[in-house]
Design goal:
single chain, 106 residues, alpha+beta, Alpha-Beta Plaits, three-stranded antiparallel beta sheet, 3 strands
Length: 106
């Protein structure tokens, strides 16, 4: 199993809206994530907009491809894209770059 952590930056003036959007994630999005192999998935948001994502999966690249193939992911990424800084034309899920794990205490 792989543990994956990534950072993104939510626009500081949109933090509360972003929080509200995640208070009620679409059921079909939650189901697609689960069916695509995203487990123990959490998002942590700092007040200045720094977003930390964490998930566990057997194969992150395969989990990303599986989500990319879903219609609900395209809709979700389009809806969430406006909240982020520095995507350089990419969707939020395309801008995720896993951080290197340097320590783990099991």
């Amino acid at each position: 199993m792989a543990r994956v952590c990534f950072l993104l930056k939510v626009r500081a003036d949109r933090v509360e809206e972003y929080r509200a959007a995640h208070a009620d994630v679409w059921p079909e999005m939650r189901q697609a994530l689960s069916e695509s192999g995203w487990r123990n998935y959490s998002l942590f948001l700092r007040e200045d907009g720094v977003l930390v994502g964490y998930l566990e999966t057997d194969d992150f690249a395969a989990a990303q491809r599986a989500m990319e193939a879903t219609e609900v992911n395209a809709r979700w990424q389009a809806a969430m894209g406006e909240f982020f800084e520095s995507l350089d034309g990419a969707r939020p899920d395309e801008a995720m770059r896993p951080l290197a794990e340097v320590f783990h205490l099991p």
